[in-house]
Design a protein that fits this description.
Elements lengths: L5 E5 L14 E3 L4 H4 L15 H9 L2 E5 L19 E5 L34 H12 L5 E4 L2 H10 L7 E2 L11 H12 L3 E6 H6 L4 H6 L4 E7 L4 H9 L17 H8 L2 E2 L8 E6 L16
Parallel strand pairs: 1-2, 1-3, 3-4, 5-6, 5-7, 7-8, 8-10, 9-10
Helix pairs in contact: 3-4
The structure holds thiamine diphosphate (TPP) and magnesium ion.
């Protein structure tokens, strides 16, 4: 290869490809579960990804993107995305019919010119709680973080055990998705699902708790109560100078213990095969790191 600092970016469109990667690469959250422990993986990148990953993108002289549409969460300003690098991609558009004939994919071999990013070290109670939950999870679990700060922090910080499946409604960001998502995931696989959801998002799909109870599904739901739409709060704060008016983001969530009782769900922090729900309360759920609109990524 004539390039000295080649970098591969792999997205979830490449999930079913058996890629023999022997060059530095970054992964999107859509495929973090598959590549988190890969020896050539250098971490994530993007708006709420690792600043180290974003720095590698600026340093690379060649970037090959496979199975990712590079949406605004990955590259908020495409005109500023690695202008110094030769960029090429497979499956930039999604959905996109590609003949996944591996002979069209070049050899994924290149020099190991960079280090892996160190782990995100944000040390607030919600980050520590995600660490603790990810430590307790089993290698066969499916993990579905919902949207908002809660979901984002879980996706940033979850330490994948090989075998785990981690996903959410990436980028499209449908609040409340994790509940029906979990029902589908466990019905399709028989595996236990851990849902991590904000108070605002649970309110959007609370009726589906009844389905979980009716089918006695192995779904453990953790509700993060931060008294409102935390993500909207943080975004508005970041965008302060661009806004002419604020939007109310605060609200109350019903008593989760009583809610569990009303639906007939177990109220417990313990991971088990019983359908359960548990509330954790945090005042500060700020996502860090997070790119601020208007700044250079
Ligand atoms: C259906 C829908 N409405 C609005 C939004 C915009 N939005 C994204 S995150 C968010 C707040 C989510 O609140 P919560 O679930 O409590 O999570 P938190 O950010 O507080 O952790 C909002 C309003 C969205 N993504 N989907
Ligand atoms: Mg909330």
């Amino acid at each position: 290869m004539k390039y000295k600092k080649p970098l591969l970016i792999v997205g979830s469109g490449a999930r079913d490809l058996d890629l023999d990667i022997q060059m530095p690469f970054l992964y999107t959250w859509g495929i973090k579960d598959k590549y988190y422990n890969h020896p050539w993986a250098k971490g994530d990148f993007g708006v709420t990804g690792s600043p180290h990953g974003n720095k590698l993108i600026k340093q690379a002289d060649y970037i090959l993107m496979i199975g990712t549409r590079m949406d605004t969460h990955q590259a908020p300003d495409w005109s500023k995305f690695a202008p110094q690098a030769y960029k090429t991609s497979y499956c930039l558009e999604f959905p996109h019919k590609v003949d996944w004939n591996c002979s069209i994919i070049p050899e994924l071999v290149g020099p190991d010119w960079c280090k892996r990013s160190s782990e995100n070290s944000t040390d607030t109670p919600i980050y520590r709680w995600i660490d603790e939950l990810s430590e307790r999870a089993d290698k066969d679990d499916i993990i579905i973080p919902d949207m908002g700060q809660t979901g984002c922090i879980a996706l940033q910080r979850w330490k994948i055990k090989d075998g785990q499946r981690l996903f959410n409604g990436m980028n499209h960001s449908p609040m409340g998705y994790s509940i029906p998502g979990a029902i589908g995931a466990t019905m399709a696989t028989g595996r236990r699902v851990i849902v991590i959801i904000g108070d605002g998002s649970l309110m959007m799909n609370i009726q589906d708790l009844q389905t979980i109870v009716d089918y006695h599904l192995p779904i453990n739901i953790f509700v993060v109560n931060n008294g409102g739409y935390g993500m909207a709060r943080q975004t508005l704060k970041d965008w302060e100078k661009f806004l002419t008016q604020g939007i109310a983001c605060e609200f109350n969530f019903p008593n989760t213990r009583k809610l569990a009782k009303a639906f007939g769900l177990k109220y417990s922090p313990v991971l088990s095969n019983e359908p359960s729900i548990y509330e954790v309360k945090f005042d500060d759920t700020t996502i860090s790191p997070k790119w601020k609109y208007g700044e250079e990524l």
